[in-house]
User: What shape does this take?
Amino acid sequence: MKRDLAALEGREFDLLVVGGGIFGACAALDATQRGLSVALIERADFGSGTSAHSFKMIHGGIRYLQHLDIVRIRQSAAARRTYLRVAPHLSRPLPIVVPTYGLAMKSKWVMRLGMAAYDALTLDRNRGIVDPARRIPMGHTLSRTEVLARYPDLPSQGLTGAAVFCDGQMYNPPRLVLSFVRSAAEGGAVISNHVEARTLLREGSRVCGLQARDALSGEALRVRAKVVLNAAGPQAEGLVESGLGRPLEPRTPWSRDACFVVGRAVVRGDHALTVPARSKDPGALLSRGERQLFLVPWHGSTLVGVWHRVHKGHPDEFSVSEAELAAWIDEVNDAYPGAALRLEEVRMVNAGLIPFGENTVEAGDLHFGHRSRLIDHRRDHQIDGLITLIGVRYTTGPEEAALAIDRVFDQLGRRTPRSRLDATPVVGGDIGDFEALVARAKRERPDSLEPACVRPLVHCHGSRYPELFAAIRARPELGRRLGDADTPAVSVVHAAREEMAQTLADVVLRRTDLGTASVADEAGLAACAELLSGELGWDAARVAQERAALEAGIPAVLRRHAREPIA
Assistant: This one.
């Protein structure tokens, strides 16, 4: 995967995808697999926006039973199946424990009934998933005694037990995006990160491409395409307005969704636990009362969230304050005193914008967004060559992308082939049994690679891990760990040579686990920067610039409470 800007300007593509989050990445791969010539540009790095800051869960749609939204249940379960089937190294089932109380809507019998209905609606949820460990089991219940043995600090008054169902969890959201991007590139797509879309190019009532800018050099680019798919997330509306001279109506309401990571295991084992939030879902037809917050095992730590806040400002201007974080910690501790969360334990804060329901800024009980926006501008605005996709949840990326590419074929006037996105493994995803693959990798481990680094490396690269092992055997020093992380030096070199990493943040936050659950220690960051300076020809001034840019991208509240300050 090489960054070649000349290849972007040297031809007219069938499709230009703007936006390298999960929706754009899936669309680029789907279009490539269906035989189109494809280009994709991303203004920052692949998976660096909302996709990177998601809650890392692949929602199968069980919560939409409360809204009686069967369509969304089916769509979500199908998308979850796609991730577990085509990227088993980067996704897994996640068991979730929901405590039950009383005899009404929070009771065990209601949850049992709901799980039975969900299981019936998603009978095909494991179709095509080869690895038994990646299949979603049926829901079941726990007794009151079993729940209190596992979570002794749960409020016990009225407790009757718990329901247990499975959703999915990503190992590393940016790497999951990258797996789709790299698969598109290996299929012939021309891909580039750090290329910013400036304005749409038009010939009368037809969009014919894009004026863009290389964000690293400042060079102007013109990329021509028969159809442009605008999948730029929160920036999508601005791109439409710049090209069409009028705003996209109706305007999309946005929520800043946020979560955080604490550096210890708050819940036992591999099960997530739900606790009641202080807000309710006013749109639920079958309400269980309060919304649920999640305490989720995450890389030896705990992921906590999600909190929502209406965002009315510029899509690049939002943040998480220390006061908000402190209030969220109080909310969790009130619901589950056993968590005993403290502000200084916070190791990572994630926040991103997603489409939302109509709410006032002051509203406490918020209406969620329920549908992505897929806009065919030929039909809606009499503008050929432009389609806009604004995705509502990371989970539905494969499903929504396939619908968008169907529209692309319609605009091109060609027969629409069936999407193969749900059945074709991504790069590194051709795995029959993930644990067997890890065991094989441990047997084949180069002598200089520490045993603790093997499993994370196989998670990140799947069946492609032998490429990195070969590099270590050629240069044994690449097997060394970076600081106190279980990330070997070879991962940094591979990111620069094979995965289009251009900045320190690209590598730390999106190509490796150096910034997955917490930011690496000073020794790890220094070693990473040194390796990249050798690969990319950085001088001392550029290294300092990259370190400053990485720090600027980390929330201030995290910098104050990280285990080690970033120099």
Residues 70-86 form the longest helix (17 residues). Confidence is low (pLDDT under 50) at residues 560-567. Residues 434-561 form a domain with the Helicase, Ruva Protein; domain 3 fold (CATH 1.10.8).
